[in-house]
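Final report, closing paragraph on structural work. Over the funding period we assembled a curated collection of sequence-structure pairs, and we close with a single example.
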Amino acid sequence: MADTEIPSGAAAREPGALHRPGRASALRSRGRTRARASTGTGRLAALLVSPTLLVLTIVVLYPTLMALDESLYGPKGLDPSTGFISNTEPFVGLKNYGDIFTQAGDRFWNAFWNTTLFTVVTVALETVIGVAMALIMHKAFRGRAVVRASILVPWAIPTAISGLLWRWIFNADGIANVLLGHQVLWTADGFAAKIAVIVADVWKTAPFIGLLVLAGLQVIPKEVYEAARIDGAGAWGRFWHITLPLVKPALLVAVLFRCLDALRMFDLPYILVGAQKGSVETLSMLAQNEASNVRFGPASAYAVLLFLYVFLIALAFVRLLGADLVGDGGPRSRRERRTGRRGVLALRRAEVTA
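Its predicted structure, as stored:
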């Protein structure tokens, strides 16, 4: 019977070839090498992130924990057991939070609704005006640099200076009443004070949204607009189906930053209208008022509630619009697909034309 030689390649393809000791040791060595590489990468990433985490711990986490601890103590006063003034703050547990919703409930809810009103109205107006500013600054025309500088000047002015400027404008004999032709008490306690704060805040921070949207506009290729114009899209169609979808991530980031900033509004109404004005008092102003009266426990309780409010708004914003914030290709609704169809067609036509 003739001997039959088996090629070496066929032996390598046998089912048991992969289970040979040499092959198994090579696979284990390769796996250990990859594990060491991933471990080294993880350590390098942790080393690079550690300074940021340290700063956040010192600036954010530690003050938050201290405020939470301080909110469990009451103000110094008479010790009921001895009848003398106590030198230490008594532990009261959750009494400060209970007082906020009972004894000081009216003032707290007034400040809460003022904060919410200012946030919703100012951010909505700033978004519309900021997008318009970005579109104007993005156009190519003579004197564009001067227009850009003049639009960005209000955002560069400190908020305290801006509050003083608008306080002079809204004086009884200021330019606002001169233009209107009759006297309006803008800086008194009333609805006019709300309008004054909204106008001043929109003037101050609308350029911020405009600047971020402008950065998003500058990365959109011109070929997309040319292809859409060839397809017969008008100015409104190009804006709604091309500009807005492509600039949406930058716009959402700007809106999120502005919402978080408006929820903490303090300096503008404090300087423009004044302290303890019920029509413009915000949660930050309420916490500052308690602290100025040496009631650090209730002030910390207000600060903790404001922190929770801001945290919940930011969490809801990121959870609902997280995919748009990072600009990934996550699942979209039918309306979003229908809205962005014109932009996709324009992009394809631009690629074919190129």
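Residues 1-19, 327-340, 350-354 have pLDDT under 50 and may be disordered. The first helix runs from residue 8 to 12. We thank the funder for supporting this effort.
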